[in-house]
């Protein structure tokens, strides 16, 4: 009987094991996760869950019974101590588990502020796991003062929740503007104005020099010399692929765990999927960090374990919820040379072009434009920029062109 071992019980690990069973795989499946809970959704952690609007059990992708009913041996709170690629075994505690196929779905880990500048002080948090959010929940009290380091989606979402709960928020972004790495200037401007309306003090082009405090953080010195009183800090300074275990075992790394177009690593019968893995795209090894990618990539690997021989074509899409804003993104805007802005009442969309090629769409409270843009991009259709810029254009008609 064939045995599949999956290391990493997040969105990708769950998607892969469920797909195997749905396709009729009748061998043994072991899903190993370090956290003491079953696989769960991460996006609501910094939003609905932190606000107290979602119970923990509602985060779970499936109830515990699902794994027993589908003969998936879910190991929770289990750390993998060793992977022996030659012997084809994984050691978890006192158990040595053999495998025919091994899959890394270890996800990513948050960057932390260096201990040398106070990053190890109590009251300094990251947002990644259920335990991370549980640890910071008590700090979100009316009148508290928070410093958020990093103007990406995690930092901005945390700022929105903090303001809703009455926390005074200062957000610093070392780059020239918030969302600089992931969005156009027009989207940054919209989001910055939204946070300003809600009282967030955003400081761009300003970094963190050091945190102050004896045991617990009490203040911060910024790179421009400003000193702030602080009750707690959230570091939203990006994530890195969790590839150390694979690398130590001898699996090749390149921008994460390097895979080919089928999801295979350089070691036979060893695969990787999701945030931790890179795949060939545009002459380089690309890595995506999103729920949609984690699901699509993991399900493709499951199909290929079953012999499908399918190659991976990314269909990037993302979203972010901040206050009453739902920002939906389709495609990848890197390399754009212009952005076209469309208004439809209060709805706004930003269309990224490189020459005559449509690359991406940012839709701000504009689900219609998001769906149209996503379908155009996935179909490889490139409506002329002047057509998209024309406010009288029937955008839905472009799908039939």
Total of DSSP H or I helical runs spanning 4+ residues = 10
Strand content: 25-35%
Please state the average pLDDT score.
Answer: 96
Structural class: alpha/beta
How much helical structure, as a percent, in the residues?
10-25%
Which residues sit in consecutive blocks of at least 5 with pLDDT less than 50?
none
- Sum up the overall morphology in one term: globular
Radius of gyration: 22 Å
C-alpha termini separation? 51 Å
**Count of strand segments:** 26
> How is the main sheet built?
5 strands, parallel
- Order of strands, main sheet, comes to 3-2-1-7-19
What does the model show?
The structure is a single chain. This protein has 401 residues and is α/β, with parallel strands linked by helices. 23% of the residues lie in helices and 30% in strands. The chain contains ten helices and 26 strands. The strands form seven sheets. It has a five-stranded parallel β-sheet. The chain has a five-stranded parallel β-sheet with strand order 9-16-10-11-12, covered by helices on one side. Strands 22-23-26-25-24 form a five-stranded antiparallel β-sheet. Helix 5 links the parallel strand 10 and strand 11. The radius of gyration is 22 Å and the shape is globular. The model has no long low-confidence stretch (mean pLDDT 96).
Provide key terms for this protein.
alpha/beta, five-stranded parallel beta sheet, 401 residues, 23% helix
């Amino acid at each position: 009987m064939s045995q599949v071992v999956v290391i990493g019980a997040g969105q990708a690990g769950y998607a892969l094991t469920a797909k195997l069973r749905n396709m009729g795989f009748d061998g043994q499946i072991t899903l190993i996760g370090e956290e003491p809970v079953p696989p769960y959704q991460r996006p609501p952690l910094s939003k609905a869950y932190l606000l107290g609007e979602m119970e923990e059990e509602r985060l779970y992708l499936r109830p515990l019974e699902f794994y027993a009913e589908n003969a998936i041996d879910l190991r929770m709170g289990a750390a993998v101590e060793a992977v022996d690629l030659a012997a084809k075994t994984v050691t978890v505690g006192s158990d040595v588990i053999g495998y025919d196929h091994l899959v890394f779905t270890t996800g990513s880990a948050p960057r932390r502020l260096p201990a040398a500048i106070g990053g190890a002080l109590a009251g300094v948090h990251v947002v990644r796991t259920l335990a991370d959010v549980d640890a910071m929940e008590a700090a979100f009290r009316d009148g508290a003062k928070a410093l958020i380091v990093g103007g990406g989606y995690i930092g901005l979402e945390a700022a929105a929740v903090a303001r809703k709960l009455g926390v005074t928020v200062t957000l610093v972004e070392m780059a020239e503007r918030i969302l600089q790495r992931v969005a156009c200037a027009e989207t940054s401007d919209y989001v910055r104005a939204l946070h300003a309306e809600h009282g967030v003090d955003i400081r761009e082009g300003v970094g963190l020099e050091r945190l102050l405090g004896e045991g617990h953080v009490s203040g911060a010195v910024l790179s421009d010399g400003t000193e702030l009183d602080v009750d707690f800090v959230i570091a939203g300074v990006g994530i890195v692929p969790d590839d150390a275990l694979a690398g130590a075992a001898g699996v090749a790394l390149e921008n994460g765990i390097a895979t080919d177009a089928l999801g295979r690593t350089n070691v036979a019968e060893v695969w990787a999927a999701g945030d931790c893995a890179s795949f060939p795209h545009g002459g380089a090894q690309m890595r995506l960090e999103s729920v949609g990618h984690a699901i699509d990539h993991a399900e493709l690997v499951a199909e290929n374990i079953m012999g499908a021989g399918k190659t991976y074509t990314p269909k990037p899409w993302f979203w972010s919820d901040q206050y009453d804003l739902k920002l939906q993104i389709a495609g990848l805007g890197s390399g754009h040379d212009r952005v076209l802005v469309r208004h439809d009442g209060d709805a706004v969309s930003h269309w990224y072009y490189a020459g005559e090629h449509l690359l991406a769409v940012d839709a701000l409270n504009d689900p219609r434009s998001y769906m149209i843009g996503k379908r155009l991009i996935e179909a490889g259709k490139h409506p002329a920029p002047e057509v998209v810029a024309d406010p009288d254009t029937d955008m839905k008609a472009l799908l039939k062109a």
